[in-house]
Design goal:
Number of helices of chain B: 4
Order of helices and strands of chain A: HHHHHHHHHHHH
Strand content of chain A: under 5%
Low-confidence stretches of chain B: none
Largest sheet of chain A: none
Number of strands of chain B: 0
Shape of chain B: flat
Shape of chain A: globular
Oligomer: heterodimer
Structural class of chain A: mainly alpha
Distance between the termini of chain A: 20 Å
Number of helices of chain A: 12
Number of domains of chain B: 1
Largest interface: A-B, 105 and 74 residues
Radius of gyration of chain A: 19 Å
Strand content of chain B: under 5%
Radius of gyration of chain B: 20 Å
Distance between the termini of chain B: 47 Å
């Protein structure tokens, strides 16, 4: 089946739903930190990332230096470079420079996960469908949280925190079930990440993710190099 | 004014990190090793982001662990993303009512 704009939209619905709740929390947090609702919405629309925005709001609230802001965003969001590199290998020929420059705005953990799990080559229209509905959900959730944060009971907003992780689980568990190699890499990455959290708490969240995932992937690549036929990036 | 600078720096750095590798990389990577690393990266990143953060995602370890177990079981049986995510959320919420 060909990837289309409509297909992108429909694949983006679970992402948008997940984003609505997470960005709702971001909206609440931003306003509590003294940022206006309008600025919170602009931040969400222009950044489209959870961890980076949360850290950014913390820096703004603390009156941090511009350099600190740039460095923090760089470290926390560096994983998007790896994702972009990975995605660049499975782009259709119709992905011209302009399309790449526009679509790169929407490389997030979730959009990357959904896009990279497609069997077909990625076309711009599919990516735009996926990105537009996700960005809409992210921005609307921020607006709702910023303007009306205290309507939902605390128990509900707390439980909503697990939504996006539930989505990650729904992607990695079936992969681990199907392939022992994937299972091994997934377990290594989780183990490294937990080691950083509990044994090396000084390492920032962004760096811990980068180091854990690179180490796990390199171990996987050394022990179980993929057959070229397995690689989605290979065309003949 | 300084708020606009903050936001511009945030958005600018985040965009460039995304745009540069995605736009510049044109050639197919030939190295089997690099291809293997890129194949594994998505799963590794998602796994590293999920664990252990998921256990702290609901303000209560017990509700979060129940939600995680429910998500893993449903994902094992390949239920759709939204179903898995919502079931994790609802099970964490309901567990919270009992503790």
């Amino acid at each position: 089946m060909k990837l289309t704009f409509r297909k992108g939209l429909s694949h983006g619905i679970p992402i948008a739903l997940g984003y609505l709740s997470v960005s709702f929390g971001f909206g609440i947090m931003a306003v509590k930190s003294g940022i206006s609702a309008i600025n919170a919405i602009i931040i969400s629309l222009t950044n489209l990332t959870s961890a980076g925005q949360a850290a950014g709001v913390g820096i703004i609230a603390a009156g941090g230096a511009i350099f600190e802001m740039a460095a923090t965003q760089f470290v926390i969001n560096l994983r998007y470079s790896l994702m972009g590199l990975s995605l660049s290998q499975k782009l259709d020929k119709s992905f011209t420079t302009i399309h790449r420059m526009v679509a790169s705005y929407g490389i997030t953990d979730e959009i990357f996960a959904v896009a990279s799990s497609q069997k077909e080559k990625l076309v711009p229209s599919y990516m735009y469908g996926l990105i537009s509905i996700s960005a809409l959900g992210w921005t609307c959730g921020t607006a709702a949280g910023a303007f009306a944060g205290n309507i939902l009971p605390a128990s509900v907003t707390a439980a909503m925190g697990i939504l996006l992780y539930g989505m990650f689980i729904a992607i990695i568990v079936p992969a681990a079930k199907n392939s022992r190699k994937d299972l091994l890499v997934i377990c290594f990455a989780a183990a490294f990440s937990m080691a950083f959290k509990y044994l090396l708490p000084g390492v920032s969240f962004g760096f811990a993710i980068i180091l854990s995932s690179i180490a796990a992937s390199v171990i996987g690549a050394i022990l179980f190099p993929i057959e070229l036929a397995e690689s989605e990036s290979e065309i003949t | 004014m300084s708020m606009l600078i903050y936001i511009a720096v945030m958005a600018g750095v985040t965009y460039l990190i995304r745009m540069i590798p995605f736009t510049i990389f044109r050639k197919k990577i030939k190295s089997r090793f690099i291809q293997s690393v890129l194949y594994y990266i998505p799963y590794a990143v998602l796994s590293a982001m999920t664990f252990p953060s998921i256990f702290y995602s609901t303000d209560n370890n017990i509700t979060a662990i129940v939600g995680t177990v429910v998500a893993v079981i449903l994902a094992y049986f390949k239920l759709p993303l939204t179903v898995v995510a919502l079931a994790a959320c609802v099970s964490a919420l309901v567990t919270g009512f009992f503790i």
